[in-house]
Amino acid sequence: MNLYDLFVKPYENYSAVQILLEATGTVFGILSVYFSIKKNIWVYPTGIISTLIYVYILFNFGLLGDCMINVYYTAMSIYGWILWSKNSKDHIHVDVSWATRRERMFAGFLFVLSIALVTLIYYYKPYIDNHFSMDGANLGLYHLDWANWLDVITTSIFLVGMWLMARQRIENWIFWIIGDFICIPMMIFKELGITSVQYLVFTIMAILGYLNWKKSLKEKNIQ
Questions:
Q1: Does 69 share its domain with 148?
Q2: Predicted confidence (pLDDT) per residue in 22-34, tens digit
Q3: Beta-bridge partners for 32
Q4: What CA–CA distance (Å, rounded) separates 48 from 73?
Q5: Residue 113 needs a FRET pair 20 to 30 A away by CA distance; which of 1, 15, 51, 149 works?
Q6: Which 8-state DSSP code applies to residue 132?
Q7: Whether residue 120 sits in one domain with residue 82
């Protein structure tokens, strides 16, 4: 596999509109992470635009299972937006803190529940991607390779990360760092070179976000 196969070949059959949409979704995704680092509520409007673009792209590609997961991301972003709006003194920035023991336990439960739900979506994915028709669709997990199973895990990691971010908990960055890092080789395996670079950028930004939120809490406690 060379650089051409990674960064050019997958897009040879894409239309200009499809490439523009994916690029726009990527830009808004990066903007969303930037705003989250700054504890700025614009993390959610930009994130919602990004996920809705991917909902449209995946729907048009007939990947309804992946589309449904992005719909969930959008719903979680709306939930986070509402929470941050309530907890923001200036309606833009929020204070952050570490998760409580109870929240960490719930995060663990949410992770296990997410794995079960995402696996269930993959089980019915042949039926969903066949436009909810059983004609020629064989249910099961037989179609999953190691990258798909990693996708189940990373999706669950991201869902927990989104919940912790909505709660303004510093631990959310740990989940983003782990999930983004895992996605780098997974996207290379899928021959999505541009997306793998995107996740490399996300990993670096997530590390910066973790350090920034920790510093912010420390400075607040000193005051």
A1: no
A2: 888 888 989 999 9
A3: none
A4: 8
A5: 51
A6: S
A7: no
